[in-house]
Amino acid sequence: MSAVGPVQSIPAMKWRISPSQAGFTGFVIGLLLLCLLGWEMHKHHGQEQHGAQSRSVASADMVAQWVDSTLIASAHSLRGIKELYDLTQAQPGSIDAEALATLLVRRRDSLEFWEEVALVSPSGRIVASTLSSSLTRIELDQHAFFTPLLSHTAPVLEAVSGLYSSETAGGELRLLHALRLENPEGELQGLALARFAPSVFADMLERLTLNEGTSLGLVDTTLRVLARRAEAGIAASMSVGKEVRTPQLLAFQSGSDIRRSWIRESPVDGVHRLYSARKLENAPWVVIAGTDTTFYLNDWWRRFWALMAGWLALVVMGAVAMRHYRHLYAAEQELRQHRNRLAMEMETQLQAQQASELEAAQLKIAAMAFETHLGMFISDAENRIVQVNATFTTITGYAAEEVLGYNPRFLSSGRHGAAFYRTLWQRLKAKDSWQGEVWNRRKNGEIYPQWLTISVMRNDAGAIANYVATLSDITQRKAAEKEIHQLAFYDALTGLPNRRLLIDRLEAALKDTQRDGHYTAVMFIDLDNFKTINDSLGHYLGDALLQDVARRLEQVVRDGDTVARLGGDEFVVMLHELGGDLALAAPHAEIIANKLLMSLMAPFDVQEQVLQVTGSIGIALFTGSEVSVSDILQQADLAMYQAKSAGRNALRFFDTAMQTAVVERARLESDLRQALENQEFRLYYQSQVNAQGVVVGVEALLRWEHPVRGMVSPAEFIPLAEENNLISPIGAWVLETACRQLALWARSSATEGLSIAVNVSPHQFRQACFVDEILDILAHTGANPRRLKLEVTESLFMAEGDTVRARMEALRSEGICFSLDDFGTGYSSLAYLKRLPLDQLKIDQSFVRDVLDDPIDEAIVRTVIALAQSLELEVIAEGVETQAHCQWLYEHGCMAYQGYLFSRPVPVGALVVERQAACMRSIAASAP
After folding, report:
1. Do you know which Gene3D superfamilies this protein is assigned to (predicted)?
2. Do 739 and 805 belong together in one domain?
């Protein structure tokens, strides 16, 4: 019996799966990839459609704002005509019909899109107009447009018509803008009419740059086209008057939504588009912006077919691999069966052949190890190649018969010098091994990086028998390392150095300037109108523009200089070695900066769009170690904002005064936040007198007594308080202090009749708790509300007019008075004077100062006084500094005064409340 038992058959390998299992697994993987592809394309389709919708919504909003601004300008001019008409009614005979027609012509000519203007009575009679024809009457009852304006209940005060055929314009399509004229009792007095052509909106659309596949349109209440533009070269007025009635547009027009989007074919040109509609705020019209689905889904389709092609390629490769696997599996099964049969036959000869079989097994193991995924070659003691594996051929391109007997030096690329190879052989002799990165050459001449390991094999006598080398191609790893470096230090969009690499180079430049004393310049560049282009034309176009800007900047500077992108539309240029003389370095930097500005001003041709941008450049020069990298960037940034403030498309050098101003402003803001807590605010009072010289009240004026700076000008700290939302607590302190003073004055017969006027900031007035806050102050101070006068400015009424009126009515019902400060310097509309509960108009000192010398100021003051009298409002003039000023104001009907002639602003202890007899003597003498 054999000493070693019978040879057992070789069992099947447990880990290998059958071809059917492998096929099923491949099918599942393919199906999952297809599902993933479908999900990805569905998500991408939604993103593309959302992006197109956002762009069309932005375009519709932009056009809507333009049209609204045009209608607002028309409405303002109509209100001006109403005020002229009100003046003729308030002062009959002051303006005759001919003069009124002349004024209407001037009003018409002030707006370039107005064709004709007219004042029409309720019966349709033309009171005055700019029409040169003999038309004297308009049949108002024959036009449905006028019905709501003529209604006794006055549901509509202002309206814009749809398109109509105008006989006086030769039958062409025109639009009407009408304003209802009412007397103080709300009764109809007539209509102010303005006629204009829809071409004004077509001209707006003509000036826009349209993306390919984009359309813009404006329709009236009857869904007829006022203006439409679908592509460059076709006039926006071509489709005027055409009806575009669609179910989606009808539903949107009758609904309450301001915006809505849908997809359908165009009723005008049949193009399938995504539409976004936007209702106007000042007219019952609709702006429609469309984007051709063919264009915004173009990238989606390319991506879809690319992914499908990749998926199909994977399926084909999987099928080929599966076929190969089936053959391999069958061959392995056949080999296993053959080996089992051979083992059975050789069982009786096992002991005799045990030694030879063991040796054969060892050689087989060595052969299997030799055929690894690493390239291998073995050379003899003289370093001649004696054996290579298949992977060696794959990597180098050399077959075994081409290299056997040759020294491996023929693979050298020539990149390594003699010192490199000398070090390599010294290491081999000392350690019997070496490994490292080597650049070698393939058979086709390509130079590539490889990781090489060499081991020395010695015989029993210790002599070198062979060298065994393994090598691997590390081209992909090197490429990955390069890509990682690129992502870490370079901007992905433009390829320019990013902020991290810029800071590294700045730090290196700082060290260089410390060593050689040369100046270096850092230029902070910001594109002036990039956001408008990016929002209106799309981010793809904006990215392409940024890439073109980067190339132009690189073309201007030298090779050794740096152009970097910090993000968005912000770029930085660093100029090296400008010399050690500041007088020469600064002009050199200025020349380069001007070249950069000129290069940016040249039009950019981006994806068949001609774009125009400009830049603002801030320059900081540095040398030595007196500044840090963050300081340099901050200085250049500050200088850039100075260039922006100078009107853009400009350059500014950093000046230490900028930094000083910023630091000073920050310090002042910090001190201002502590001023109220530290009780540094003071109230000064300036007296207000009547025509008899009696002090009837005072104006409370805020002063800041800084412990170090002394008195800080209100013009310096009030805007800062407004900007940082500190005005509300400061204003509350002023109101409470003034009310406490009123309560003290009420205890004395000499001062109980005095009132205090307190200035209220619009920001403070708009606080939701403002009314309750004042009522609480009056309650706990015990002040008489009838002695408190709140001074407000015209800017308060520019927004939230109804809310402001409601709060004023609530305070006035408690006895508080209101004075309109600085009247005439702002909007100065008769509309809010009529609607708001005002008690007094205050003539601004800028008009009073030159009233004796400037005819314009004289006319303005005279008009304000007459207006106040007609509206039964008190009027007071501030800035009265001379007796002549006071005399002139008295003679023209102003009976209250405030200014240096009577008193400067003083603390309450220095206030004089006695009658100003000397000042009023000449006025009293001239009184009838």
Report:
1. 3.30.70.270, EAL domain, PAS domain
2. yes
Of 641, 648, 617, nearest to 524 (Cα)? Answer: 617
* Domain that residue 38 falls in: 17-296
- Ramachandran sector of residue 568 (left: φ over 0; alpha: ψ -120 to 50; beta: rest): left
Cα 277 from Cα 843, distance rounded (Å): 47
**Residue 531, Cβ neighbours under 10 Å: how many?**
12
- Pick the closest to residue 289 from 208, 233, 235, 234 (CA basis): 208
Q: Is 531 domain-assigned?
A: yes
Q: Looking at this protein, which amino acid is placed at residue 714? A: P
* Model confidence pLDDT, tens digit, residues 761-783: 888 888 889 999 999 999 999 99
Do 116 and 81 have their domain in common?
yes
Those residues whose C-beta lies under 8 Å from the C-beta of residue 531, and which sit 6 or more positions away, are 569
CB 189 within 8 A of CB 86: no
Q: What is the pLDDT of residues 1-52, one digit of tens each?
A: 334 444 444 444 444 677 888 778 888 888 888 898 888 888 888 888 888 8
Q: Residue type for 871, please?
A: L
Q: What is the identity of the amino acid at 426?
A: Q
User: What does the alpha-carbon distance between residue 804 and residue 769 come to, in Å, rounded to a whole number?
Assistant: 13
CA distance 832 to 605: 50
- For 841-864, what is the mean pLDDT? 89
In whole angstroms, give the CA distance from residue 132 to residue 198.
21
Interior angle at CA 257, CA 255 and CA 258, nearest 5: 125
In this structure, are 195 and 134 located in the same domain? yes
**CA 730 → CA 601, 760, 791, 821, distances in Å?**
47, 10, 16, 19
Q: What is the distance between the alpha carbons of residues 808 and 831, in angstroms, rounded to a whole number? A: 16
Residues 601 and 462 in one domain: no
| Strand boundaries in 400-501, DSSP class E | 433-441, 447-458, 464-473
- 674 shares a domain with 787: yes
DSSP reduced 3-state for 392:
helix
d(CA 248, CA 264): 9
Decide: helix, strand or coil at residue 854.
coil
Amino acid at 11: P
Longest alpha-carbon distance in the chain:
157
Measure the CA–CA gap between 158 and 885, rounded to whole angstroms: 43
Bridge partners of 790, per DSSP, are: 758, 818
Q: Are 859 and 829 in contact (CB under 8 A)?
A: no
Residue 289 DSSP SS3: strand
How do beta strands 896-898 and 447-458 pair? unpaired
Residues ≥6 apart with Cβ < 8 Å to 15: none
Distance CA 231, CA 791 (A): 54
DSSP notation for 317-356: HHHHHHHHHHHHHHHHHHHHHHHHHHHHHTGGGTTTTHHH
Tokens of 67: 């049209």
Exposure string over 629-640, b if 16+ CB within 10 A, otherwise e: beebbbbbbbbb
Least Cα distance to 819 among 900, 723, 698, 909 occurs for 698
Helix (H, G, I), strand (E, B) or coil at 696: strand
- CATH (domain of 623): 3.30.70.270
DSSP assigned state of 411? G
Q: Report long-range pairs for 103-108 (Cβ below 8 Å, ≥24 apart).
A: 104/128, 104/129, 104/130, 105/130, 107/77, 107/80, 107/81, 108/194
Band (143; pLDDT cuts 50, 70, 90): confident
- Would you state the pLDDT for residue 411? 86
The rounded distance, in Å, linking the Cα atoms of 332 and 688 is 113
Indicate the pTM of the whole model. 0.42
Other CB atoms within 10 Å distance of the CB of residue 323: 11
Q: What are phi and psi of 269, to 5 degrees?
A: -120, 5
Picking from 426, 435, 445, the residue whose alpha carbon sits closest to that of residue 472 is 435
DSSP 8-state code for residue 490: B
Pairing of strands 755-759, 695-706: parallel
Q: Is residue 605 within a helix (H) or strand (E), and if so which, with residue range?
A: strand 604-606
